[in-house]
Design a protein that fits this description.
Elements: H1 9-43, H2 49-56, H3 60-88, H4 90-107, H5 114-128, H6 131-140, H7 145-156, H8 158-173, H9 184-206, H10 219-233, H11 244-247, H12 251-271, H13 274-282, H14 288-315, H15 318-335, H16 341-362, H17 364-369, H18 372-386, H19 388-404, H20 407-425
Helix pairs in contact: 1-4, 1-7, 1-8, 1-9, 1-10, 3-4, 3-5, 3-6, 3-18, 3-19, 4-5, 4-6, 4-9, 6-18, 7-14, 7-16, 8-14, 12-16, 12-18, 12-19, 12-20, 13-14, 13-16, 14-16, 15-16, 15-20, 19-20
């Protein structure tokens, strides 16, 4: 009988596929739910924009700053948070993140003016810091690179799904206006923040730290998965034990940082303003109807995140996929500024689909480049510095609109970020790993 480490590669492949299929089934639905709630709690402020202006007098400039300042607090604590997760395990640290951000999100119902709005948005960023890079790191504990593009596409499914389902939900909560003396936007923050607290507590009982902690993988599956992942780690930069300060000087890391920041300018240039754009196209105040139509572009993104990463993985062409998405997002953002309703809505659909899908493809590159402690630091740093693009996006749009006195100017400025990103994407590896490392 052959020893486990002397089995034919085809047999190892069969066991690996079986193990990762089980991991997808048991982990991805809950991870997607967590991501949906995270994105809902950071982006629902876009639906509250008009109400905050009418009830509290919060101006467009203050809203833009408050929407973006979330990412300042987020950036400050991102790297420390991910390093802590690497040390203490995903289950406890993810639960802590979700409960604290849920409490802060719910507290947004108590906003009374400019200063409290800005302060709570900054606190929300501090509370949520570490969530997304924590999940990215967590996926490397379970899924080899061969499966990772598909898994990233499925995980990013939570982003547009949150907007598809969350926009009508948030709009419906506005109908509670006046109940128990609260405005509709206050109910929205209270209920959606409370949902994050509940799921955060569930995380303690649902999310395992790693393959060794579960009973739904047999010993053969655990051993094979461990062997494949370990062999992969040895092919990466520094083998996971490098100096974090040395990592900061890595040209590869700097490229990822700049590229992701430019991508986020496009992403949040859509997220924070899409409900208001739809409101303008339909000539209606933000409410259930506008929020329902606002879900359509995100429904297109749901389909895109399922199909495009699978195609990119099949063709083993991540750079081409990234470039196509960047070009599409830039062109679509310009088209969405059309004065005609049909082209404008089509542009929003293509923009939403491309700004989400490009991120699912992008993360394949850094996850393939770093491992271990280096991966924890690099992923967090890319996400934290890159997400400063989320701070820049609303301020870029607000400034451009003010200078040129037309809403289209902000769209063109955000689209320009996608054009700049193309120059960096051109230097990425043309293809992913063609084969799995030998085990």
């Amino acid at each position: 009988m052959q020893k486990a480490d002397q089995r034919p590669p085809a047999e190892d492949d069969r066991v690996r596929v079986r193990a990762t299929a089980k991991a997808s089934k048991h982990l991805l639905p809950f991870l997607i739910l967590m991501y949906m709630i995270a994105f809902l709690d950071r982006s629902n402020v876009g639906l509250a924009k008009q109400a905050l202006h009418a009830d509290l007098g919060i101006s467009d400039a203050v809203f833009a700053f408050g929407a973006g300042v979330f990412f300042v607090g987020y950036a400050l604590f991102e790297v420390p948070s991910n390093l802590i997760l690497y040390r203490v395990g995903a289950r406890r640290w993810m639960a802590r993140i979700m409960v604290t951000w849920g409490l802060v999100s719910a507290a947004t119902m108590f906003v009374r003016g400019d200063h409290s709005f800005i302060a709570l948005r900054c606190l929300l960023g501090l509370a949520e810091a570490g969530f997304f890079p924590g999940v990215m790191l967590y996926l490397t504990f379970w899924f080899p690179q061969k499966e990772r593009m598909r898994v990233l596409g499925l995980y990013y499914f939570g982003y547009p799904l949150a907007m598809t389902l969350g926009s009508p939900l948030s709009g419906a909560l506005f109908a509670l206006d006046g109940v128990m003396g609260l405005r509709g936007w206050q109910w929205m923050f209270l209920i959606e923040g409370g949902l994050a607290v509940i799921v955060g507590i569930m995380t303690l009982f649902v999310l395992p730290n790693g393959p060794a902690d579960v009973t739904w993988l047999d010993d053969e599956e655990k051993a094979t998965l461990s062997r494949v992942l370990s062999a992969e780690e040895k092919t990466k930069t520094g083998h996971g034990h490098g100096d974090i300060w040395k990592l900061l000087r890595s040209p590869k890391l700097l490229q990822f940082l700049a590229l992701y920041a430019l991508m986020q300018v496009g992403s949040y240039g859509v997220v924070f303003y899409l409900p208001e754009q739809v409101s303008g196209i339909l000539h209606q105040k933000i409410g259930f109807w506008v929020s329902t139509v606002s879900a359509v572009p995100w429904a297109c993104a749901v389909i895109s995140t399922i199909l495009v990463p699978r195609l990119v993985q099949k063709l083993n062409a991540p750079r081409a996929g990234l470039i196509v998405c960047l070009v599409t997002s830039a062109v679509a953002l310009v088209v969405s500024g059309s004065s005609m309703a049909a082209p404008a809505l089509l542009g929003l659909c293509l923009a939403a689909a491309s700004v989400v899908t490009v991120q699912a493809i992008f993360w394949n590159f850094p996850l393939a480049a770093f491992s271990g402690l280096e991966a924890a630091g690099a992923i967090a740093l890319i996400n934290s510095v890159g997400n400063l693009g989320g701070f820049a996006a609303p301020n870029i749009r607000s400034l451009a609109d003010h200078l040129w006195r037309t809403p289209s100017a902000g769209l063109y400025a955000v689209a320009a970020a996608g054009v700049l990103a193309l120059s960096l994407a051109a230097f990425l590896p043309r293809r992913g790993q063609a084969t799995q490392p030998a085990v």
